[in-house]
Amino acid sequence: MIAVRLETLNDFSEWRGKARQLLLAGVRPEQVAWLGPAEENGLFEAGDSMLPTGGGPVGSVPPGFIELGQLAICNSQPERWALLYRFLWRLVQDRALMNSASDPDLQRLVGMASAVRRDSHKMKAFVRFRAISDDSGLERFAAWFEPDHFVLERTAPFFERRFAGMIWAIITPYRSAFWDGEELVFGAGGRKGDVPADDAVEVDWKTYFASIFNPARLKVGAMKGEMPVKYWRNLPEAELIAPLIRGAREAEREMIERIASQPPARHLRREANATPAAELGEERQIASLEQARAAVQECRRCPLFEFATQAVFGEGPEAADVMFVGEQPGDQEDLAGQPFIGPAGKVLDAAIEKVGIDRTQVYVTNAVKHFKFEPRGKRRIHQKPNGSEVEACRFWLNLERAFVRPKVIVALGATAASSLLGKAVTISRLRGAPITMDDGTTLFVTNHPSFLLRIPERERQEEERAKFEADLVLVRDAIAQMRGGSQLTPPHS
Ligand code: URA
To answer: Which CATH number characterizes residue 409's domain?
Structure first.
C-alpha cells in the first residue's frame, strides 16, 4: 500500500500531478491510500520524489473528466481522491466510460460535483458582510460562512466582481479569502468570532432583507432560491423572519380580498382559456403595472435571478401605443435597473429619433428581465437566454402587454420575436411586413440593435442600419395610421 499525502483539500492540479505519477507507474487504485493535509494513518508515506516512476504514456482523458474532477475534488467526502483515481484508472482504458450514465463511479462523482455547485450557489446567496471598524479610517468588511464543501476558492471571484470597490474578507473554517481592491488572496481558515457580531452594516442588511422579503424563500428544503434553516443562525435578519411572515400573510390576504373584487385585466380575460389556472391566479394577484414592477423583483421562475443584480422591468408611459421588446438587460442595464441604456440602447434611440417616432411615447422592455452572463475575469459576458428562461419570463411580458395594451409591438431580435410568437422564428423571413397577433396587436419584427454593433465592416454596418431604420419607418407609419392620420413627426433625413 502506498500512502499519498495531498497538501491541499481541493486543488485538482495537485491531485492530478500525483495521480499521473501513479498511473505512469501502473499503481492500481486499491494499492493507494490518499491522505488529506492533516490526516494521520500510520502508513509509510511516499513523498513526491518517492512516488513510483516509469511505465509508458498515460494517454489523454476526455475534457469532461477535468471539469468533473475540478468540481468533485471540492466535495468534502474524504473518499473523493480515491474515487477520482479509480475512475481515472478505468477511464484511460475505456474513454467511453465518460458517457456511461449508469456507471456507479461516474454517478457518484457527478453527485459530488452537483453538491459542490449547489453549495457555491448558496454561498453567493447567503454571505453577509459586516463592517469592521479600526483606526485606519478605511472601511473594511468581513463575512463568516460555513460551507458544506470546499467551495471558497471557486466562489470568491464572484464576490470580487460584485464588491470590487470594497475591501473585504470572507472567513470559513477551512480557508479565508481577502480582497484589497486589487488582488484576491487566500489564507488560513478562521473562527466565527473573527467577524464582528453587530454594527451599522447589520442594520442596513436588515432593511434590505425586509424590502426583498419573500415568504417562499423560507421553506425548508434544497430547492434553488430557498433559505435553508441551517443558514439562519448566521443571518442578522433571522430575528425579523417571524414578524415578516405574519406581515406578509396579512398583506397577502388583503391583496386577495381587494383583487377578488376587481375584474381581471382585459388581456387576461381574453386569454382566460389559454392560461393555466395556477398562472391565472398569480396574474390576477398583480393588479397594476406598478405592482408587477415591484413583484418582478421577487421572481424566482428561473435560476437567472441568482446572479443578476436586479430584475429590469420595462419603462415608458403606461398608455404607450408602441412597445419595443428586446432580449434581456445587458451589463449596464443590470446595474442601473433600466432597459436599453447601454450601447444597444443608444443605437435604438438614434434610429427611433431618426425615423421620427416620439421616444417619450414608447414603452421599452425585454423578453427576459434578468441579465444572463458568464463571468470572464472582471467582465460579465452576455449569454443568450435559453428557451425555458424565455418561457418562464413570458409571464412578466404578458403582464406588461396586459397593462400597457400597445397597438404596435416591435420585436427586436429572435429572442423577443420567439417569446411573442411562442415559437422559434427567423428574423429575415418575418421582417418587413406587419403580423397580426392573436389579440389583434400588430407586431413588427426586426433585428436587435446590438446586431449592428457586432458588424465589423463599416459598409455592411451601414447597409444593416438602413434596413433597421426602414423597419422602424413601417412601425412609425403603422402607428400614425392607427391614430387616424399620417405620420406625426417628420423623419430626420
Ligand atoms: N439589449 C437588450 O435586449 N435589452 C437591453 O435592455 C439592453 C441590451
So the answer is: 3.40.470.10
8 A C-beta contact, residue 265 and residue 403:
yes
DSSP-assigned letters across all residues of 292-321: HHHHGGG--SSGGGGTSSS----BS-TT-S
In angstroms, what is the span from residue 242 Cα to ligand 1's centroid? 39
Whether 333 lines ligand 1, by a CB cut-off of 6 Å, is: yes
d(CA 412, CA 188) in angstroms, rounded, equals 50
Identify whether residues 233 and 281 lie together within a single domain. no
Is there a contact between 146 and 172 (Cβ–Cβ < 8 Å)? yes
Atom of ligand 1 nearest to the CA of 367: 3
**Residues whose CB falls within 8 Å of the CB of residue 398, separated by 6 or more in sequence, listed in order:** 267, 271, 283
Residue 434 and residue 359 share a domain: yes
Q: From the CB of residue 458, how many other CB atoms can be counted at a distance below 10 Å?
A: 8
d(CA 441, CA 325): 14
Based on the fold, state whether residues 33 and 101 are members of the same structural domain.
Answer: yes
- 340 Cβ inside 6 Å of ligand 1: yes
Gyration radius from the chain CA atoms: 28
Mark whether 361 and 386 lie in a shared domain: yes
The answer to whether residues 168 and 213 belong to one domain is no
Q: Block means of pLDDT (10 residues each) for the chain, length 493 residues? A: 91 94 92 83 55 57 91 96 97 92 94 93 85 67 92 94 84 89 85 68 49 41 41 56 55 47 34 33 70 87 86 96 97 92 96 95 97 84 94 95 96 98 95 94 98 95 97 96 60 42
Total domains in the chain come to 4
- Predicted confidence at residue 152, as pLDDT, reads 97
Work out which ligand 1 atom sits closest to the CA atom of 312. Answer: 6
For residue 166, the model assigns a pLDDT of: 80
For the chain, give the number of residues. 493
| 489 part of a folded domain | no
DSSP string, 356-372: T--GGGEEEEESS-S--
65 CB near ligand 1 (under 6 Å): no
pLDDT of res. 197? 67
Residue 269 lies in a domain: no
**194, 223, 252 - which closes a domain:** 194
What is the model's pLDDT at position 180? 81
Domain that holds residue 9: 2-121
Q: Of 83, 103, 121, which one is at a domain's C-terminal end?
A: 121
- Ligand 1 centroid to 366 CA: how many Å? 7
Q: Are residues 250 and 172 in the same domain?
A: no
* 271 within some domain: no
C-alpha pair distances (Å), 58 with each of 24, 68, 82, 241:
6, 19, 18, 56
**Does a structural domain hold residue 487?**
no
Place of cell 511505465: 55
pLDDT at 259: 39
